[in-house]
């Protein structure tokens, strides 16, 4: 019993240490945003936030177009997530269940695309988007993000579908279900954890993406927050408190989304890993 209590205590301490390490950057952004200039350059840094400087958050929202930037980031992230999952489910199902010429090559190509850096795709995508008038539009940026994240979404969903017994689909076909109904009513509910995991991956990629956004978006009102925050950095000075306040507001929605979906993410990591 004593050994059990010691082990439980050590596990709790380990969890608290890991949680502290993970949450410290967010906490330090809050402390920095609520610090005065004297505190920022003092010999001993301030460890607790001074809420008397909370007006920096109001100033951050009032200065520039922070609200619009956050809304643009949300639209881009949601659009990328929905489109990636909508295309990734049938693609993953086709790779898992159908046999066709070039299937192995297609799978390898999808895997190979994840080895390419975004910077390598900027020039060809820029030329392609200019031809189809997709530059300086949120729709074009969503398509660019989908092109980059769709392969990993399809491969994750393929692995999840591989773990499903084919007998379930055969039973549905015997009952008269069409192929689309088999996919949407049988397979999709069973791979929901993996869909949640890919949704988190797609959302975080689009929310944090910078290279495509700074290259394809020219109008300041259409920029996402990942690009807009960089506009506060000037040649003669940078309002550190404002930057940290906006960065803190930019981080919160992503953290909240992950906390909401974390239980599905954990389940999605193991979906399809064990058969039986």
TrEMBL record:
- Keyword terms of this UniProt record: Cell membrane, Membrane, Transmembrane, Transmembrane helix, Transport
Q: Kindly report the protein's main subcellular placement as a broad class.
A: membrane
Its annotated compartments are: Cell membrane
Output the Pfam families linked to this UniProt entry: BPD_transp_1
Top-level taxonomic group: Bacteria
Membrane-protein topology: Multi-pass membrane protein
Listed PROSITE patterns: ABC_TM1
Q: Which InterPro entries match?
A: BP-dep_ABC_trans_perm (IPR050901), MetI-like (IPR000515), MetI-like_sf (IPR035906)
Segments traversing the membrane: 12-30, 69-93, 105-126, 138-157, 188-207, 240-261
**Start and end of every ABC transmembrane type-1 domain?**
70-261
Q: Which PANTHER family match?
A: INNER MEMBRANE ABC TRANSPORTER PERMEASE PROTEIN YCJP, MALTOSE TRANSPORT SYSTEM PERMEASE-RELATED
Family membership noted in the UniProt record: Belongs to the binding-protein-dependent transport system permease family.
Name the UniProt record assigns to this protein = Carbohydrate ABC transporter permease
What taxonomic classification does the UniProt entry list for its organism? Answer: Bacteria, Bacillati, Actinomycetota, Actinomycetes, Micromonosporales
